[in-house]
Structure formats: C-alpha cells, structure tokens
Write a structure and sequence with these properties.
The chain is an all-beta fold and 192 residues long. The chain has one helix at 96-99; strands spanning 2-3, 12-14, 20-29, 37-44, 50-55, 60-63, 67-76, 80-85, 91-95, 111-117, 120-125, 129-137, 150-155, 160-164, 172-176, 182-186. The chain is flat, with a radius of gyration of 19 Å.
Amino acid sequence: MITSTQFKEGSIFVDENGQIVEVLTFQHHRKSQARAVIRVKLQNLDTGAIIETSYRPEDKFKEVMVEKRPKTYMYNDGNVAYFMDNVTFDQTGLPISTIGPLVQFLTENMEVEGLYLDDRFFNIHLPANIVMTVTETVQGVKGDTVSNVMKPARVSTGLKVKVPLFVNEGDKIRVDTRTFEYLERYTEPKKG
C-alpha cells in the first residue's frame, strides 16, 4: 500500500475507481486552518487520459509494480501503433486510442519504454521531454525577441506548439511530453 503523502513523480497505483494511474505531478497544499491535501495530476495508463484530483494525506492505494521494457516505435496504420521489442525483436500493436495524445510525439525508430503488467504490454512511457524540428511557423517581427509573446508552430509529427517569436522553421526545440509545451530551443552539443 502507498499513501498519498508517499507519491512521487512516476508512482503507479490503482486509484479509487480501480484504474491504473501514474503520478505526473503532485503538490502538498494547505490553506490556513484547513486540512492539508495533496493535489495530483495523474495519467490513466489504460486510456492515456489526464486527470487532476486531490487526496487527503491518509488516503491509501494499492501500489502497482509495472515492468518497463525497451521498445522501438515502428509505424501506425491509423488505428494501431506498432512497436518492436528491443530484446526479442517481436512486434506488438497498441491501439492509438490507448496511447492517447502521446501518439503526437512518436517518430519512426524512436526509443520508448513499454509498460507491462502481468506480462501484458498495455501502454508506453515517453521521456519527460523530446527534441523536435519545427516544420511550420510564421516569421517573428524584428525587435520582438525580448517579450514573452508566443506564436503557433507545427513540428515534424504534426503536433502544434506555442513557441517564442525567435523560433524559426528548421529550428530544433525541446517539448515537454506531459504538458505539450515548449521548453527551450535546442542546440546540438559541440563535438570535440
């Protein structure tokens, strides 16, 4: 069993509705004389849905031990995404509806973690952020580089992201896979 005060990012447990969920973010919150609560953002690992809720510190949940295995994303046919196991080279499909909005981050030959429960492949886990290439955006106006004005952009997978005015087509950016937000412009590390 795990209590809500023991949550950490990546904790996986069975919630009060019997769904397997993963903690994306959590925050202990207390207002003056009110009881403390733990506010959490959860992802349902069966459906990919994001849920925001809060729990009392004494709430207990059944912790789930999920096995993670390296996989490579191959392709999707519109309904099913196919992954290759990096050890056995077996290909397995997952319904895109199960992966949910994370499918917008998948690129061919991308390494992901396959989540297994009782030896059943039921979903994937992506890194906290991914580097993507901007394929479409409007030009920023010269002189507007210091303000925090954002403009729409589309990356190579089709995902739409708001980026600062100084980001141009062809630039590589780092995108948060939990919030779908721009983090920074990415520059290749210098070899030497």
